[in-house]
Design a protein that fits this description.
This protein is mainly alpha-helical and 121 residues long. The chain is built from 5 helices and no strands. α4 crosses α5. It is elongated, with a radius of gyration of 25 Å. The protein starts with 6 loop residues before the first helix and ends with a helix.
């Protein structure tokens, strides 16, 4: 007597559909709680962006043009730059020419990024 090879697949499919059904019911019961969590997370994310400077995250936006060590690539070297803090901040906020896009960081973080760039030796 041969066993039907499709039976395990049907069982797995039925289990998956049942799991999706029960999880969606649980999600529907908690939709206000879930929505409130997303709203708080969005507000907290905005605050973190404006209040806290993350050098690695900011540096990640620079790597593609200025190289992994920020010593130059498509864009100029940031290590040992002769630009002032104000010039760097203005370039980050407003961009420069066709190569440097504007608005990669919020203005308050641009000033902190400028300070970070000036520490690179």
């Amino acid at each position: 007597m041969q066993k039907n090879p499709i039976v395990p697949f049907i069982l797995i499919m039925a289990f998956g559909i049942g799991l999706i059904f029960f999880l969606s019911i649980q999600g529907a019961e908690k939709k206000e709680e879930i929505a409130a969590g997303h709203e708080e997370g969005a507000e907290g994310g905005d605050k973190a962006e404006t209040e806290e400077f993350d050098a690695e995250m900011a540096k990640g936006k620079c790597i593609s043009c200025h190289g992994g060590d920020l010593k130059g690539g498509v864009g100029p070297a940031l290590v040992g730059t002769s630009l002032s803090k104000e010039e760097i901040t203005e370039t980050i906020v407003n961009g420069k020419g066709a190569g440097m896009p504007a608005g990669l960081l919020p203005e308050d973080q641009a000033a902190q990024m400028a300070e970070y760039i000036l520490t690179l030796k």
